[in-house]
Amino acid sequence: MLTTIITVCFNSEKTIRRTMESVLGQTLMPYEYIIIDGLSTDRTLEIAESFKKSFNEKGTELRIFSEKDEGIYDAMNKGIDKARGDIIGIINSDDYYESEAVEVMQDTFEKTGCDLAFANIRMHMTNGRSFVKKARLRKYTTSRDWNHPTQFVSSKVYEKIRFRCRDISDDMDLYFRVKKAGYKIAVVDKVLADFTMGGVSNRIPAREIIPRIKRRYRIYRENGFSRFYIFECVAFELIKFVLA
Predict the structure, then answer these.
(1) Cβ–Cβ < 8 Å for 233, 217
(2) What is the maximal distance between C-alpha atoms in the chain?
(3) How far is the C-alpha of 76 from the C-alpha of 71, rounded, in Å?
(4) In terms of Cα–Cα distance, which of 217, 240, 89, 229 is closest to 155?
(5) What angle do CA 106, 133, 204 make, to 5 degrees?
């Protein structure tokens, strides 16, 4: 089984080194590592290119592409188009993997035959504190149990389901559609990635709270969830606003 890791970035010179070092430091190296850059104007590409020799020495091909995109999920779709692995993980340039992420996830896919898997994540707050957000599968489905930076997906699933490129909640929408379609999902009770709060999905002006609640609620409803999920959406966005 071959694993592809994708990082999408734009003007990420302050953080991309840490992200790439986390991929380079894996206990089991991925088959390939794809960088999808949105025409950065800072040193992002220079930093990414500096890793080519190190990845080559470890037997992983580092492939870097820089071109205009239509947003973060369009960039992710471009990376998926270029991926040659059997399973695909996506880690953004503000975040980073724990050293066992690829090994644990590849082992999970091989042992369970799952189509999608995700794990616990450590959330790093802007005040320096952190906490672990647990991954769970339960009858009451909520995005609070799911962590996109830890998510790995079979390339066969991505042949059928892609990011819709509608808004910042596209990752949640894709997960719900995969679940609704009946694909096998596995959960790993281990921290496999670290998420830096304050990024694009966490910078929430007060005026954006209601539109975000509406978008989240739409995704729940489109995927067959009860109208009562409006309370879930309100609670989630308010908590996110306070923690950000």
Answers:
(1) yes
(2) 53
(3) 9
(4) 89
(5) 115
| Strand ranges, E, within 13-79 | 32-37, 61-66
β-strand partners of 187: 118
Which residues 6+ apart lie within 8 Å of 228 measured at CB? none
Structure tokens at 236: 């989630």
Contact 157, 89 (CB under 8 A): no
Report phi then psi at 132, rounded to 5.
-95, 125
Residues 6+ apart with CB under 8 A from 87: 1, 2, 3, 4, 105, 106, 109, 152, 153, 154, 155
pTM exceeds 0.85: yes
Tokens describing residue 224: 């067959």
Q: Say yes or no to pLDDT of 60 above 60.
A: yes
| Assigned token pair, 51 | 């890793």
SS3 for 38? coil
Burial 133-160 (b: 16+ CB within 10 A, else e): bebeeeeebebeebbbbbbbbbeebbee
Protein fold of 3-203: Spore Coat Polysaccharide Biosynthesis Protein SpsA; Chain A (3.90.550)
Give the DSSP letter of residue 207.
Answer: G
C-alpha angle 61/19/37, rounded to 5°? 65
Closest to 4 measured CA to CA, from 66, 67, 78, 79: 79
Where along the chain do its domains lie?
3-203, 204-244
The label of the residue with tokens 């995700």 reads 118
Q: Which residue has the tokens 């953004």?
A: 92
For residue range 96-140, list pLDDT tens digits in order.
999 999 999 999 999 999 999 999 999 998 888 999 999 999 888
SS3 131: strand
